[in-house]
Amino acid sequence: MAFVIGMQVISAFLVALIALLFGRSAALSAVIGAVVALLPNIVFALYLKFNGKPSVVRLMLGEAVKLALIFALSFFVWRRIDFTVQALPYWVALVVVLKAHNFGLLRATH
């Protein structure tokens, strides 16, 4: 699990670095999008780690909570932060971080 979270952190850093080429505002928007994706993923990873035996119901419940947190944090960012968030870097960072867990499949398990 730490490998997957690590891949997401690396992806967030790379997206923010690329966004920095387009200005500080774009980079900050990318960082905000990455954090919005990372926090619920960390909560979900901790939920899976400290939960009892695995089950489909617990997995789906964890995913539902993760999505609810992402929606709530996104709402907070777009409505409450006193900063004009640039949409493209924000959403690119959010999607890249959410999909970075797929790189965990590249890790050999044997």
From TrEMBL:
It is found in: Cell membrane. Pfam families: ATP-synt_I (PF03899). Keywords: Cell membrane, Membrane, Transmembrane, Transmembrane helix. Its main location: membrane. It is a multi-pass membrane protein. The chain crosses the membrane at residues 5-22, 28-48, 60-78, 90-108. This is ATP synthase protein I. It comes from Ephemeroptericola cinctiostellae.
